[in-house]
Amino acid sequence: MPISPKSLTPPERSPAPIEHLYFHIPFCPKICPYCCFYVEEGSKNKSKAFLDALLSEVSRAAESTHIRPKTIYFGGGTPTALRIEQLEYLIGGLKSRLDLSMLLEWTTEANPATVREEKAALLKQLGVTRVSLGVQSWSDRCLQTLGRTHSAKQALSTYEILQAQDFNALNIDLMFSVPGQTLHEWEADLDTTIQLNPDHVSAYCLTYEEDTDFFKKLTGGQFVQNEEHDAALFESTMDRLSAGGYVQYEISNHARDGAISSHNLAYWEGRDFLGFGPSAFSTVGQVRKQNVSDTATYTIRMQTGASPVHTEETLSNETRLRERIAFGLRMSSGLEINLFAPWKEEAAHLLEIGLLESTGSRLRLTRRGRMLADLVASTFV
């Protein structure tokens, strides 16, 4: 429910430490036509005032919540759109405000158009352990359709720059079912990626979200969805990456040994987390909050001592369990059978029709189930 900026009272200090933190950096060189996240184009509000607001929110949270992070994730937007001195200021500020003695993984998303040698070296020096590079495609035609600001050549150059820094893990993000994309083009993307040998590959099917240019083109008939084509691309993804030595540990994520994303795993396992920055979500216990989705308003609220939270809801135990199942089934390891106790009949039916399978004391999606993961999840949500 929407709340007044002044209506929140500080929560009691959490007895268990919050181990997972997300920071939303809402700036992009250009807003992609398929993107539904809260982002701002260009340099507007990319100022010290915004970074101070972000650090102020961290300071406030640390006063009322036991924070001892194991994972930190910079998402967006484009975190690497921040200038070198801004990254130094932000990360230095976090180090002075948080106990990072238990930190295992520090991830940042990166756009190939915003990383050069000096910035890559700085990220490594400041303690970032993992970089997720938003390549999306190695085809310039597909990149142009997606409205990306980089070329395939630039993406390769940036990948090599990051690779030279020897981060603990380097991830390549890809997108399939781009309008006009053929199976041959997608398999060429996969083959190129495998040859580059990243530690981790994320491969997402393009979705048409409301309030995006792509959705308008879909509803206007300029783009057409083809579920059979999407399925063929997804099957090729699973087969090719598996043959290339990657383990599909989650529907869209594939890793070599030791390269699983601990931060994202925490989401799928239903762990508590805190989100900082405009539009960021937090879920702690039964309470979920979302910050206001406007950078200027967020900054002013932090400057004036008001709450950045725009909405807050109390989740029932049933809702938390439903979410736990829906997200947990995305993982190849599946979930303990006892979690399905309230939905025994539904689970039995999914087993009978071959969308779920039993592996000892756990249930997980079959290969066919992975193809219909959203349908399976809707049974429980």
List the helices and strands and how they pair.
Blueprint: E1 18-25, E2 27-28, E3 40-41, H1 48-64, E4 67-76, H2 84-97, E5 105-110, H3 117-126, E6 130-136, H4 140-146, H5 152-164, E7 169-176, H6 183-196, E8 200-205, H7 213-219, H8 227-243, E9 247-250, E10 253-255, H9 262-268, E11 274-276, E12 281-284, E13 287-291, H10 295-303, E14 309-314, H11 317-328, E15 335-336, H12 344-352, E16 356-359, E17 362-365, H13 367-371, H14 373-378
Parallel strand pairs: 1-4, 1-11, 2-3, 4-5, 5-6, 6-7, 7-8
Antiparallel strand pairs: 8-10, 9-10, 12-13, 13-14, 15-17, 16-17
Separate helix tally: 14
> What is the CATH first-level class name of the largest domain?
Alpha Beta
Largest sheet at a glance?
9 strands, mixed
N-C termini distance: 20 Å
Coarse structural class = alpha/beta
Can you give the mean pLDDT?
Answer: 93
Q: What's the CATH superfamily of the largest domain, by name?
A: Aldolase class I
Strand content: 15-25%
The number of domains: 2
Number of strands: 17
Strand order of the largest sheet: 9-10-8-7-6-5-4-1-11
Q: What name does the CATH topology of the largest domain carry?
A: TIM Barrel
Label the CATH architecture of the largest domain.
Answer: Alpha-Beta Barrel
Give the uncertain stretches in residue-range form. Answer: 3-14
